[in-house]
Amino acid sequence: MDDDERVLSPEETLRLIEKQGSAAADRFTPDPVPHYLAWGVAWLVGFGAFFLHHGLSGTPYLPIPIGVAMALLLGMMTLAMLVSALTMWQLGSPVHGMSQARGMMYGFAWTFGFLSAAAIAIRVGAQLPEAERSLLWASLSMTVVAVLYMAGGAIWHVRPMFVFGAGLAVLNAIGTTAGPGWHALLMSVGAGGGSIAAGLVLRRRTHR
């Protein structure tokens, strides 16, 4: 009897099923590192510019114009959103039906969430001083991010993603209460560094 025709034992069948299941999981699960790394760099650099502009006591550490800091943060967050969209596309492209629709709706949630936050910031921010206006923009955007991270973790049952979103929400609330400089510092170091760390944790779990 040829090897191809040999009847597999129950143990061999189980090992084959596990091997094929692991291969399928690797194929349909996108690498989370680019997503978390993109957001981590965006927050580290973008909010770092805000921190240098505001300073902890209201005195700038470097003469970075607020417009430059805002453009840098929004630009890098836009690039991070594109990386996230590509990651979701990699997840949905080989899969059709409910999983693809879920990923598409989740992607649209990011777009509409940021559009809503921008509308609020534009309407309310015009009545605030410069420092408070920048804090409004930053805290609203991070609120959207934190909520969507927690929602994504709940949808795909990814505990580190949910925990990271909850951590972002806590840091965002503390920073908003403490003031523009502290908020920028917490978002740059805590959110930026935490995002990179979360991506590495997920990568290690995915490759086990």
Automatic annotation (TrEMBL):
It comes from the Bacteria. The chain crosses the membrane at residues 36-56, 68-91, 103-122, 134-156, 181-202. Keywords: Membrane, Transmembrane, Transmembrane helix. This is Uncharacterized protein. It comes from Streptosporangium album. The lineage of its organism: Bacteria, Bacillati, Actinomycetota, Actinomycetes, Streptosporangiales.
